[in-house]
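Dear colleagues,

As part of the handover before I leave the project, I'm documenting each prediction I ran so the next person doesn't have to rerun anything. This entry is a single chain, and its sequence is reproduced below.
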Amino acid sequence: MGDKGFTTAVLRWFALNGRELPWRGIGDPYGIWVSEVILQQTRIDQGTDYWYRFMERFPTVEALAAASEDEVLRQWQGLGYYSRARNMHAAARQIVEQGGFPKTIEGLKALKGVGDYIAAAVGSIAFGLPAAAVDGNVYRVLARHFGIDVPINTTRGKHAFEALANELLPLDQASAFNQAMMDFGATWCTPRSPRCIDCPVAETCEALRTGRVNQLPVKEKKLKVQERHLTYIYIRHEGMTALRRRPAGDIWQGLWEPLLVEDGPMPDLSCPLTLLASGVKHVLTHRIIMADFYLAEPASRPNLPAGYQWVNEQEVTDYALPRLIERLLAKLLHE
């Protein structure tokens, strides 16, 4: 089976085994784009629920562009990687200013937060543009089938796999091929326990022939995970509490949090502090957060550090909060 045979086999497999997903077949570049952004770092079962809720709240790109950043972040809450939501919001405003979705790969890549993969995915699926969309699933399928051991997280690897995917791409069936490769990698040629026995391209799979299925694809070693210690103090005074919006250039940019102490002394709030949780672990990319959570109930309203503001306790959940803060606030229910 040559390259053409591989493409034909994967397309035939997709016709019989492709997943039924709510954004497939809708022909709406906005809905397709939203799905691709959500699924960048999210499992498809969780991502599907968020897609439905997001599309209900912002049914058009115009609705998304008209929303405030807080509204968008609030809707995104729990998905993590919040720069995706901020970038999508900014891109929506670009699209509206331009009068609609760009219909070229270059135009799509000019949108905030849109790289090669999303541009190719949206471009091919929504507009039939002949561009291969190469994500983690595609890397894995190609690395195994063609026996490629170039690390996929290097510039050389990225260029090599994109070139191969574009060679395999049938120009008149770009949408079907891209979706076929995504689905084949996600459901058949999976990271663990791939279905090699009944794989439609098993006879020509180099990794299967050489016993390297579990060794491919290859990645260079990751950066060392760093641990970070945060202490939060929830101040409660006459039905009010203190929050601040996290600054740019750090984790959770633009989200809200209670009084934070990091690498410094505990503040004097003229009242005892009640420890509600200690050593709460929260895992991020390249970071492990260890958090302590205290409750302070001062008799008089203390002065707040710069950037903090008083808000009604009843309205705290109206603010876009990091998942860790949601978990810590839940401890208040058990104080």
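The chain has a mean pLDDT of 93. Residues 83-98 form the longest helix (16 residues).

All the best with the project,
I.
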